[in-house]
Amino acid sequence: MRRLSLSSRLALLFAACTAVVSLFAGVLFNRASEAHFIELDQQQLDGKLIGLRRALQAVQPGTGEARLADEMSRQADLALRITGSDGQRWYDSSTHIPKELPQQPGLATLRQDGTDYRVLNAPLYPDKSDSPQLTLLLDITHHQHFLQRMQHLIWLTVGLSALATALLGAWAARSGLRPLRRMSAVARGISAQSLNARLPEGQMPPELAEMAHSFNAMLGRLDDSFQRLSAFSADIAHELRTPLSNLLTHTQVTLTRPRPIEDYREALHSNLEELQWMAQLVNDMLYLAKADHGLLMPKREALELADESDVLLEFFAPLAEDAGVTLSREGNAQIKGDRSMLRRALSNLLDNALRFTPAAGSVNLSIVDQPHAVQVSVENSGDGISAELLPRLFDRFYRADPARQEGSSEHAGLGLAITQSIVRAHGGEIHCESEAGWTRFVIELPKGK
Fold this sequence. Notes:
five-stranded mixed β-sheet; rod-shaped
């Protein structure tokens, strides 16, 4: 079976609620009307009973029947039967009185031959046990017809009100759910070429404003991720194009004619360098892919950052000496982290600093132990980085130096991106500060994580 729409469900719910309320109100009104008529009939019969008792007690011998006929003729819808204490019928004011009447004292209701009666049984002399019985019959057929019409009106009102409420509820639900249909239309129109579509949050009702905000935020994240993925794919193709062209060209040139064995050996060595760089690029990309999916799980071991830094400084000392750059380290702190991952992050920063530090410059690694975190910074002298380039330094394949050659095996533009992934895997953050004459990369790592 086809599932009902939300508008149909709300319309049926409104109709059901209205029908129940209308039916309940109608039944209460019908019961109240019926009780009101019973009360009126009781008052009327009680008043007539008092008058009959007075009339019969004051009647003269031989004139009782005439007096009763005169008394009963004043109200056409009222009839009287008098029976003795032995149950014998003494008097009927009308020939239409049913033969069998209720015998219990008090008020009762009787239906006979399509006519409804209210019947009141009472003794003529309340203080005598062998008193004759008076039975008053009031024709209430018109009352019952009114109540029947009232019941029909109630059912008609219930049906019409339920139908009207269903129609109005469907219209109200459809109008109220228009923002949801707008969200659905936006969702249907989303594709790789139209991720910039947004919902007008200001036009949404308060109940849907937060949902619209979350929906727009989701679209923004999708748009940003898609743009990054597109740029990422283009960057990979761009990076791999040059080494692949070099391999093809070098191999084709080598195979154009027979050559000495040494030429083939030299060609293979040259191709090997390109292949090693491409393998390293693929490994770096896989590393970043794991970081994007939260698959980097650093080990937690106690580390002395001063010792780890000194190992790296010793490794880069020959390069720094050749470039005429001074290396230094100050401060110390203990932290729990992955030794190989943190060494790789710091190594990327030191390598980056050495490449951009001029001769006679300096590179300083500083460690500051703070109450809740450890701050590690790598600062180098040299030309500063403009402020508009700072937010992009950690993008993949981004090169702040346009003079660097594409496809270089040393500078693929992934070092800072990998460093950022390692720092975030440890629960920390990294940023860059730069002014004229110096540049500083600052890592903040939380303690005890």
